[in-house]
């Protein structure tokens, strides 16, 4: 493992490479115990560079067998610190290398590694250098030919990017397959697979009439779980044609499911590799949430074929160019497939819960970072989700039609190129004439802006004023913040919730109903307002900002019950819960005020609300969201006490309603994954959890029956969760044993089984330790590790337990994991890094846990960077 070297890579230091690679020919010979890689790189000197510079190639853990320039062996070379330095003697040459690597012992899951019985690759961001020597940077783009050789009986399936051009038998029971990818690509999009896999076929006819062969590969025991992903893929292909005019280019599109994978999935050209958990699904073992997630990830990876592969990133500072845009695209896809409001509510809630804390913590970074030590640490919610919000604001500012024109121009102009976020914005500016100069601060300034709003109504003048004041706290390395361009989608409502016509003196777009703020302070005067209006601001979460707008109870109640914008209605209800909880925490008073119960009553009684929206409105804000919303040092114990008291009070106040609704939501319909059915099941899960919270034995009987009689995973989990949180120890252990007995051969079900226990109310560290000792656990498998450890860390009341023991426990696990898989280990540092938001000894205990990681031997650059920033 690499020791921390604190090497800092800076955007300001970007320069083109000295050499380009035009074509890459690879032969990967897989043997038991080692793999030999032969590469032939057709290279040419960069015409903009003088002289004949040394060639410096990236290469990690390479055992060199031979090096050649054309046919001349290279005798003089230096290989140290993961760089191979050689001196070319001509401007054009073929660099040849034969090296050995050790995929069987590659637990980092980057480069070529073994996942169960199969070999597969993960090259983003810098994994290709673990396969062979290369200019492993995204602006070096080449065509690839890949030949894989392996034992035929053990590895009948041999795959790589592009089209198959040759295959055949070799001596000793071995065979080979050769694949050719005609599209230029950077090395991070390379993929190869060797395994004993079953293949599920389908096809898709593109808008121009080309027939594409679609293939999903999985291990034989998972063959029954591939249909949903294939269908999702076809929906994605069609959607991208319709919404973005993007047609698929190769003749084959392949997906491979891998049990060992660091992330969700990877968009390798023509050969996507997926975490099994993000692709394999069926009714019996996958919940509605899982189906939705899989559909979105399949779409995301597919959409990358244009936003990422055909047009890629010039350097890793541009990561959000492909990720922000692709998340924006997949969110839009999900909205079109299901319920747009539900999707928007969930995305905004996720951003506030996870990205806002990142943006106010030690790891805050701009959507276009200026520097990094370890690029793997920058696959963050800021790059992905905030990046998507930034793209969404561009759409909001210029409108959908011009946005589409801009994206057409972008794809056309940069096809086959490595581009920058500036290039993307320039296309949007060119088609719209909108000046994005100030807007680009969204790419360069870290942190979440706060917008403070105040209002004034002058009945005599029939004038209404809104004053907006925006500000941003300093973030690490950025003390000065300048005002942002903030689109405020808004309406003024009368007492019936109807929208008033808007006549104002500011930059307000009548068509899109968007008011654009550009200054630190803006006062907008609305004329002809005959009664005190209700301001519905930031509709549909039109900008990723914190809003402080003090409203009276009457105003909040009107917005919560009558706003026609369903997102804002939800937001008003959440604000009531949040403000109340914050007041309870501050006052140390755990009485739930009638306002909250009134809101719950009104939401329960409103038959116009869809079950999905109703369940979102009735759910209390998570602990994580509360922590972020407090904006002061958090007393975690007081926070837990207040939220638990409110939940209890809501549960008890409407006990009969919870029971009745839970029963009435039971349906005999055949299971289908669609928005309507999923919404019903989601609401039932919520009503059941309130009902079970009352301690009513009938609720537990219902939950147990739901678990036992379920013909689908959603119902089964909903029943089981209610039992886990409220049932007797005996019942809990009965059902958990039953679950494991029935499903222990199904990997996804075992992961769920581990997660359920780690996330259950009141779980102790002893239980977590026992889970890590269980036969089903494997510390080298990221999904299993995430199930147990992320399950525990997100289990607020258990992780933040009163004796603080959760922190040291996690620190020790991070140290342990770092020796196995640094990328996964580093992700867990997030659980400690926001220690400063907590008060007193708790903060000290979290800091000490971080310090113990900092003091440990042999830390990876991944973990070091995050820990050092957290302690700075
Ligand atoms: N580009 C992929 C995510 C991904 C990133 C890094 C990985 O390994 C270090 C793996 C996957 C996506 O956005 O889906
Ligand atoms: Zn992506």
UniProtKB/TrEMBL annotation:
One Gene Ontology biological process: proteolysis
Segment Disordered: which positions? Answer: 854-872
Indicate, by first and last residue, each region the UniProt record lists as having compositional bias (Basic and acidic residues): 862-872
Reactions catalysed according to its record: Release of an N-terminal amino acid, Xaa-|-Yaa- from a peptide, amide or arylamide. Xaa is preferably Ala, but may be most amino acids including Pro (slow action). When a terminal hydrophobic residue is followed by a prolyl residue, the two may be released as an intact Xaa-Pro dipeptide
The Enzyme Commission number assigned here is 3.4.11.2
Which InterPro entries does this one have? Answer: Aminopeptidase_N-like_N, Aminopeptidase_N-like_N_sf, PepN_Ig-like_sf, Peptidase_M1, Peptidase_M1_dom, Peptidase_M1_pepN, Peptidase_M1_pepN_C, Peptidase_M1_pepN_C_sf
Q: Where is the Peptidase M1 alanyl aminopeptidase C-terminal domain?
A: 554-872
Q: Where is the Aminopeptidase N-like N-terminal domain?
A: 99-189
| Source organism, top-level taxon | Bacteria
All copies of domain Peptidase M1 alanyl aminopeptidase Ig-like fold, residue ranges: 447-549
Q: Offer one Pfam family short name for this entry.
A: DUF3458_C
Q: Which UniProt keywords apply?
A: Aminopeptidase, Hydrolase, Metal-binding, Metalloprotease, Protease, Zinc
* Gene Ontology molecular-function annotations: alanyl aminopeptidase activity; metallopeptidase activity; zinc ion binding
| CC cofactor | Zn(2+)
Task: List residues of the Peptidase M1 membrane alanine aminopeptidase domain.
Answer: 228-442
The EC class name is hydrolase
Function noted in UniProt: Aminopeptidase N is involved in the degradation of intracellular peptides generated by protein breakdown during normal growth as well as in response to nutrient starvation.
Into which family does the record put it?
A: Belongs to the peptidase M1 family.
Name this polypeptide is given: Aminopeptidase N
Q: Which organism is it from?
A: Reinekea thalattae
């Amino acid at each position: 493992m690499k020791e921390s070297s604190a090497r800092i890579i800076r955007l300001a230091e970007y320069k083109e490479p000295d050499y380009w690679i035009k074509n890459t020919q690879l032969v990967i010979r897989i043997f038991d115990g080692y793999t030999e890689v032969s590469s032939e790189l057709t290279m040419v000197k960069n015409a903009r560079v003088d002289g004949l510079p040394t060639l410096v190639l990236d290469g990690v853990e390479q055992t060199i067998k031979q090096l050649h320039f054309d046919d001349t062996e290279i005798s003089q070379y230096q290989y140290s610190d993961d760089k191979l330095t050689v001196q070319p003697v001509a401007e054009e040459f073929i660099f040849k290398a034969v090296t050995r690597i050790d995929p069987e012992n590659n637990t980092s899951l980057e480069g070529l590694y073994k996942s169960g019985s199969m070999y597969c690759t993960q090259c983003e961001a810098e994994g290709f250098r673990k396969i062979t020597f290369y200019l492993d940077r995204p602006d070096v783009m080449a065509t690839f030919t890949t030949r894989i050789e392996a034992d035929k009986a053990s590895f009948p399936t041999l795959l790589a990017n592009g089209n198959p051009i040759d295959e055949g038998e070799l001596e000793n029971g071995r065979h080979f397959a050769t694949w050719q990818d005609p599209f230029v690509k950077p090395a991070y999009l390379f993929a190869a697979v060797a395994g004993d896999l079953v293949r599920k076929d389908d096809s898709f006819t593109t808008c121009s009439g080309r027939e594409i062969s679609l293939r999903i590969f999985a291990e034989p025991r998972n063959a029954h779980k591939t249909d949903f992903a294939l269908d999702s893929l076809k929906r994605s292909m069609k959607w991208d044609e319709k919404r973005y005019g993007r047609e698929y280019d190769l003749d084959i599109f392949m997906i491979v499911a891998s049990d060992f994978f660091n992330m969700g999935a990877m968009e390798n050209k023509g050969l996507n590799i997926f975490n099994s958990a993000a692709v394999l699904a069926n009714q019996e073992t996958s919940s509605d949430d899982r189906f939705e997630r899989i559909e979105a990830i399949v779409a995301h990876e597919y959409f990358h074929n244009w936003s990422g592969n055909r047009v890629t990133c010039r350097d890793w500072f541009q990561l959000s160019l492909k990720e922000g845009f692709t998340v924006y695209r997949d969110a839009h896809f999900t909205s079109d497939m299901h319920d747009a409001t539900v999707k928007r509510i969930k995305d905004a809630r996720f951003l506030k819960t996870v990205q806002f804390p990142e943006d106010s913590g030690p790891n805050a970074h701009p959507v276009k970072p200026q520097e990094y030590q370890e690029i793997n640490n920058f696959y963050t919610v800021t790059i992905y989700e905030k990046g998507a919000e930034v793209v969404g604001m561009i759409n909001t500012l210029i409108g959908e039609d011009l946005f589409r024109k801009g994206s057409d121009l972008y794809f056309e102009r940069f096809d086959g190129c490595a581009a920058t976020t500036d290039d993307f914005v320039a296309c949007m500016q060119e088609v719209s004439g909108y000046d994005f100069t100030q807007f680009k601060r969204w790419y360069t300034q870290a942190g979440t802006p706060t917008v403070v709003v105040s209002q004034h109504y002058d009945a005599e003048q029939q004038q209404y004023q809104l004053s907006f004041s925006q500000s941003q706290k300093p973030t690490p390395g950025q003390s000065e913040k300048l005002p942002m361009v903030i689109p405020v989608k808004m309406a003024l409502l009368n007492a019936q919730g109807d929208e008033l016509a808007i006549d104002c003196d500011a930059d307000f777009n009548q068509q899109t109903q968007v008011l654009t703020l550009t200054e630190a302070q803006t006062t907008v005067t609305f004329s002809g307002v005959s009664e005190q209006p209700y301001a519905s601001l930031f509709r549909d979460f039109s900008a990723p900002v914190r809003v402080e707008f003090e409203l009276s109870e009457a105003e909040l109640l009107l917005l919560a019950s009558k706003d026609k914008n369903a997102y804002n209605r939800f937001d008003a209800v959440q604000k009531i819960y949040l403000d109340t909880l914050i007041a309870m925490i501050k006052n140390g008073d755990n009485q739930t005020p009638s306002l909250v119960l009134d809101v719950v009553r009104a939401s329960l009684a409103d038959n116009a609300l869809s079950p999905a929206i109703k369940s979102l409105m009735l759910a209390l804000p998570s602990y994580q969201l509360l922590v972020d919303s407090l904006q002061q040092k958090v007393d975690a114990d007081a926070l837990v006490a207040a939220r638990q008291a409110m939940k209890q009070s809501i549960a008890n106040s409407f006990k009969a309603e919870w029971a009745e609704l839970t029963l009435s939501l039971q349906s005999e319909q055949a299971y289908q994954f669609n928005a309507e059915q999923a919404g019903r099941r989601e609401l039932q899960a919520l009503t059941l959890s309130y009902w079970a919270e009352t301690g009513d034995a009938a609720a537990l009987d219902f939950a147990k029956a739901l678990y036992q009689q379920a013909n689908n995973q959603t119902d089964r989990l909903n029943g089981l969760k209610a039992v886990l949180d409220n049932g007797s120890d005996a019942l809990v252990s009965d059902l958990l044993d039953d679950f494991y007995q029935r499903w222990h051969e199904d990997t996804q079900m075992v992961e769920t089984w581990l997660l359920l226990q780690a996330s259950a109310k009141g779980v102790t560290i002893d239980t977590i330790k026992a889970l890590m000792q269980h036969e089903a656990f494997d510390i080298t498998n990221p999904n299993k590790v995430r199930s147990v450890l992320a399950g525990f860390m997100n289990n607020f009341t258990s992780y933040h337990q009163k004796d603080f023991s959760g922190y040291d426990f996690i620190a020790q696990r991070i140290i342990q994991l770092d020796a196995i898989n640094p990328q996964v280990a580093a992700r867990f540092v997030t659980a400690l890094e926001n220690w400063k938001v907590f008060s007193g000894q708790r903060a000290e205990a979290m800091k000490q846990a971080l310090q113990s990681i900092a003091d440990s031997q042999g830390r990876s650059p991944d973990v070091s960077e995050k820990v050092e920033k957290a302690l700075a």
